[in-house]
Amino acid sequence: MKLSTRTHYIVYVLLDLELHRNGDSPISFQDIAQRLEISHAYLEQMIIPLIAGGIIGSSRGHMSGVVPVKPADHVNLKEIVALLEGPTDPVECLVNTRICPRSGLCTARKFWGELKVVIDRVWFPLPCRI
């Protein structure tokens, strides 16, 4: 699976939020955009799925910006990829066996299942692991 540029940037955004977290104070869009060298408008557009998914929150007005809703060690990378890219299952027959008549006899099914388990275990790294 090749991840989009947007997903790459979102990982950087989440790390930036953890590295610059100051309690519940929002981190300004402008500060994040400047540190990551991306436009303010692109950043705002990119994070919409994360706000909708409950990963981060946003505030408007004088103290506009974003704040993590979940700590980084509680954010599953699979959840982020699914929000931005869609399902992360390596093959669709793992979640829907009816799409393939050979699903019950498939010799590769065990391999795909093990790969899915590894993907599902990936957790977003804490800043102390950078």
Give the topology.
Blueprint lengths: L4 H15 L9 H8 L3 H7 L1 H5 L3 E4 L5 E4 L8 H9 L23 H13 L9
Antiparallel strand pairs: 1-2
Helix pairs in contact: 1-5
Explained architecture:
- There is one protein chain.
- The protein is mainly α.
- It folds into two domains: 88 residues, Winged helix-like DNA-binding domain superfamily/Winged helix DNA-binding domain (Arc Repressor Mutant, subunit A); 37 residues, no CATH class.
- It contains six helices and two strands.
- It has a two-stranded antiparallel sheet with strand order 1-2.
- A hairpin with a 5-residue loop joins strand 1 and strand 2.
- The longest helix has 15 residues.
- The two termini are 23 Å apart.
Write down the CATH topology of the largest domain: Arc Repressor Mutant, subunit A
Overall pLDDT level: 84
What gap, in angstroms, lies between the N and C termini?
Answer: 23 Å
Q: Given this structure, which CATH class of the largest domain is correct? A: Mainly Alpha
Structural class based on helices, strands and sheet pairing: mainly alpha
- Side by side, the strands of the main sheet go 1-2
Secondary-structure element order, N to C: HHHHEEHH
CATH superfamily of the largest domain: Winged helix-like DNA-binding domain superfamily/Winged helix DNA-binding domain
Helix content: 40-55%
Rg from alpha-carbon coordinates: 18 Å
- What's the domain count? 2
CATH architecture designation of the largest domain: Orthogonal Bundle
Bin the strand percentage: 5-15%
Question: Given the C-alpha coordinates, what overall shape results?
Answer: elongated
Helix segment tally: 6
Biggest beta-sheet profile: 2 strands, antiparallel
Strand tally is 2
